[in-house]
Amino acid sequence: KRTCISKFSEPQKLFNIANELLHTEEAYVKRLHLLDQVFCTKLYEAGVPPEVVTGIFSNISSIYRFHEQFLLPELKTRITDEWNKNPRLGDILQKLAPFLKMYGEYVKNFDRAMDMVNTWMQRSSPFKEVVQNIQKQEICGNLTLQHHMLEPVQRIPRYELLLKDYLKKLPEESPDRKDAEKSLELISTAANHSNAAIRKMEKMHKLLEVYERLGGEEDIVNPANELIKEGHIQKLSAKNGTAQDRYLFLFTI
């Protein structure tokens, strides 16, 4: 009896995952719309230089168009209208592959974009006014521009998690298994690239912090260097054996 209940519940579990994908995609497209159609547009209209707006938002317009015009409609049709006859996601998610490279550009630019937002919030009254006015609106959900800009960086790793969950519950003999496994392979590669870029940004931030603390030692700020460890040590004097406090930074060079 329990086995029977379990078997009947599997299709429902798969549908629940598909439904979660659809609902999170709808929310994500609203975030992309906010970034591209609201923040970008208003900043252009306020006379902020185009190169500044592009420097901040990178290729967000391309990402927004893909999701709004292609991926979301396909998911909506499949999950809302066709699921009973064709319960599968893998064939649609495989088509994600062509757009994954777009995220690489956005992620690589993200750190620079954050710096530009901070700089222009401090230096430009029109920029600050536009951003703050939008942030007060209900559409922003009491969140900052920077918070919304983080969404595309996090999106592909979220696809990966949902797809892994989907595959765990997908029967081995399912016609969707091959497509779903191929989709996961493509999305995982892209997620790794995103995560690697994020880790690289974090490491560079750390090097810049050390650079400032050491009074501007230029050789440190090199992307090839990596801070392995830092902390207090005691150096024993060769002359009299007394302990001397030191602070050590250990790098790979």
Quaternary organisation of the protein chains: single chain
Number of helical elements:
8
Apparent shape: flat
Coarse structural class: mainly alpha
Low-confidence stretches: 1-5
Mean pLDDT: 86
Q: Work out the strand percent.
A: 5-15%
| Total E-strand runs | 2
Major beta sheet summary: 2 strands, antiparallel
Question: H/E order of the elements?
Answer: HHHHHHHHEE
- Spatially, the strands of the biggest sheet line up as 1-2
- Tell me roughly what share of residues is in helical segments: over 70%
Distance between the termini: 63 Å
- Compute the CA-based radius of gyration: 24 Å
Task: Please describe the structure with a list of short key phrases separated by commas or semicolons.
253 residues, flat, mainly alpha, 2 strands
